[in-house]
Amino acid sequence: MAEWMGQMLRRIGWRSLALLLVLVLTSCAIPQIKAEDRLFLPLTVELLDVYTLPPQEFEGTTVGGLSALTYDRPRDRLYILSDDRGRFGPARFYTLAITLKRSGPPKFDTVTLEAFTPLLNAEGNPYPQGSIDPEGIALSPRDTLFIASEGDVRESIPPFIGEFDRETGQAIATLPLPKRYLSDDPDSPSQGVQNNLSLEALTVTGSSSGAGMIEPFRLFAATESALVQDYNDDPSQPLNSRFLHYLIGDDQNTLIAEHRYPLDLEPSGAVVNGLTDLLAIAPAGHFLSLERAFGLRGMQVKLYQLATGGATDTSTIPSLSGDVSGISPIRKQLVLDFAETPLAVDNLEGMTLGPRLPDGGQSLLIVSDNNFESDRATQLILLRLQT
Predict the structure, then answer these.
(1) Partners of 350 in the beta sheet?
(2) Of 138, 246, 270, 320, which sits 20 to 30 A from 355 (CA to CA)?
(3) What is the value of pTM for the model shown?
């Protein structure tokens, strides 16, 4: 045996044998990673604290219906949007200042309402009652606010995405919305958004290049649930929202792509189920999404990471109600199921990257909408987002 091994070594050579051993050992040491996992960032989320905003009046308005928020890092302020259609004050957003405890585990220290800003139309007038249903908000690199309104199908009020002056609240421009999002009949529509399941999620990515120059940036929006023409009444099949991708510049507001966002299957007994917010977290097409269902099983909320790379452009596809197996969707991966946390969450609808934590980590803030019901809380939730 020893003589045979010696002959084999002389034939293949010591150098080749060493290389072979390195390859074998190296291949054993490399962890096997699923192709699916390579799509996503290695995210973790940790629940840190929750602050309950007490029911209150503020400058003649009822504080409630808080459906979206965005963080202004240079000013260290939060802008929180109310979805009030004009019943408890004008359409508006609030400015909040928050501080975190500087010692011990990261927690809220103070949460202070500082101001409210009414939303005004392009003529500088308040929106008539019922004519706007604000649901999404995002601060842009040019220091304006983009706001999404669901509209009202039954009242023939279309949804829209508008750009507003941050200081005055006045509308500056409206983004083009394809005809397929607009209802063709208030009583029996065959196309367009479903009533109260319309444009809900909104996020912006991009930054100022300095010296007053603003590079083109991206805006992303999504419907809470399927369009009428995309609806599939088979409970074994997930519904598909539509995810819109705009390019915004000084002389352009262009919808450049659209993708299929597969919702979770509707839980048994659910009354409401859908996508409530988006948040861009990386320039390479990575987002967080917030899905919320409510029904016989109570409130169910899940946080996902999204990867849009490779998703089919659905802008030329008339309907997503049939076989969608050939239409590559946005991929999603569960980050946090709030049912597995000690917190009894309410109607979570908005999220934003918040201030840095005292230890330098990145915070994630989520807000709940109490629907102006006095026995329901408005929760402001603090989490750590770590990559």
Answers:
(1) 367
(2) 246
(3) 0.90
